[in-house]
Structure formats: C-alpha cells, structure tokens
Please model this.
Amino acid sequence: MDKFIFLLLAGIIAGFALLRVPLAGTFLSSLIPVFNWIAIVAIIVFSLYLIFKTFMAILGK
Model:
C-alpha cells in the first residue's frame, strides 16, 4: 500500500513539474496549453483519489 501512495504522490509532483517545464522557444511551444491542461487534470485526479483513499482508510473501509 505504501508504494501505491508514493506513486500517487509522484503523479502529483509530475503534474506540477509539467506545469513548470519551459517550452517557450521550442517546437513544442504551440502545445503549451495542451500540456498545461494535462498537468492540471493529473494534479486534480491524483489529489482527489489520494483524498478519497485517505477518507476510506480513516473510516476503516
């Protein structure tokens, strides 16, 4: 279970890293909005699932 939680945390950190990656001046600069949306969705999904798993562990289910 601990590895699974660390995997969720790694997904959240990867989302934040994707938000901060400098793409200006590269051939990927036209895809900056796409990468930002992917990063935001990853952060939200992994965070919500981690909160859900925490509540389920607290409730004992």
Remarks:
- Residues 32-59 form the longest helix (28 residues).
- The chain has a mean pLDDT of 91.
